[in-house]
Structure to design on (312 residues):
């Protein structure tokens, strides 16, 4: 059981490390692409790669399960990324980063309501949540002279955090059906792409593949499509299956820390003492939230070996 949990923690950490570095690729691509173009292209690449990795359809045992896959694609692929990107046009990136970090709190609430998880959330979970949010605020606003509130963007950020929590809870429910993790993720991507098409027309999407002739654009879109989408959604879904949605979502706290470290190492940006202290406090919050969290869902019937086999 401990080895199974250890694999889940390692996979969750790997996922947020990759996701914490995606802003660099996105920043490069935004010089040539619109946000919705980046999203649609990266998930199409992810879908194709997952199909090549594990061909064949997901043969559902019950037709009503299709609604859960559609909901997962709508929440985790379409709505989350669209709301996050639109929020960035209305409010500061720092506001978005802080607000989205409340996703673990939403996940805990939804898990108790819809997954009927037993046990109690220890005080350490809430202490960790408070510590992490304070730390993320310190990192996000360390260089700002004033705190700016922008209702439209900030509310969209809250919405993004909520739909990501919904995605995590839905993913946990789907994992109980015992389907291949890769096929499950690909099926979600299919719905996400389908739901994203109307938004693509609304935001004046242009395919313009000639832009990928630039090696820098090509490498970055491949990183987002193959790494941050295909691989990391599989690893995230695997972690949710092993650890549960609440314990996995807590790793979201680490994403801003990874972003700051990457900024220093790759972009050579300077980190202020306040931001450094905030990063440390955020990591303390993550450890507190993970350490004595006692939310137990129904036991997973698959062994870790079976799950790893599906990921391969």
């Amino acid at each position: 059981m401990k080895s199974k949990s250890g694999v889940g923690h390692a996979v969750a950490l790997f996922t947020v490390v990759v996701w914490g570095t995606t802003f660099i690729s996105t920043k490069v691509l935004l010089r040539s692409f619109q946000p919705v173009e980046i999203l649609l292209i990266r998930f199409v690449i992810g879908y194709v790669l997952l199909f090549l990795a594990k061909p064949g359809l997901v043969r559902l045992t019950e037709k009503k399960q299709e609604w859960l896959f559609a909901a997962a694609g709508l929440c985790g692929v379409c709505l989350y990324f669209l709301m996050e990107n639109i929020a960035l046009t209305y409010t500061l990136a720092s506001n978005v980063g802080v607000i989205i970090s409340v996703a673990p709190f939403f996940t805990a609430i939804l898990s108790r309501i819809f997954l009927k998880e037993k046990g109690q959330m220890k005080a350490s979970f809430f202490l960790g949540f408070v510590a992490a949010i304070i730390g993320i605020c310190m990192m996000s606003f360390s260089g700002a002279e004033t705190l700016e509130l922008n209702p439209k963007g900030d509310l969209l950020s809250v919405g993004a955090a909520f739909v990501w929590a919904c995605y995590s809870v839905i993913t946990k429910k789907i994992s109980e059906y015992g389907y291949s993790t890769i096929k499950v993720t690909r099926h979600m991507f299919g719905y996400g792409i389908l739901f994203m098409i109307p938004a693509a027309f609304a935001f004046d999407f242009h395919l313009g593949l000639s832009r990928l002739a630039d090696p820098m654009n090509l490498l970055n879109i491949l990183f987002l499509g193959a790494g941050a989408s295909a691989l990391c959604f599989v690893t995230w879904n695997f972690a949710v299956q092993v650890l549960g949605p609440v314990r996995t979502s807590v790793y979201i706290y680490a994403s801003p820390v990874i972003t700051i470290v990457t900024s220093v190492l790759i972009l050579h940006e300077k980190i202020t003492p306040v931001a450094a202290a905030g990063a440390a406090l955020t990591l303390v919050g993550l450890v507190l939230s993970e350490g004595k969290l006692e939310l137990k869902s129904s036991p997973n019937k698959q062994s870790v070996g079976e799950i790893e086999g599906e990921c391969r």
The longest helix spans residues 215-243. The chain is about 75% helix and 0% strand. Residues 2-311 form one domain.
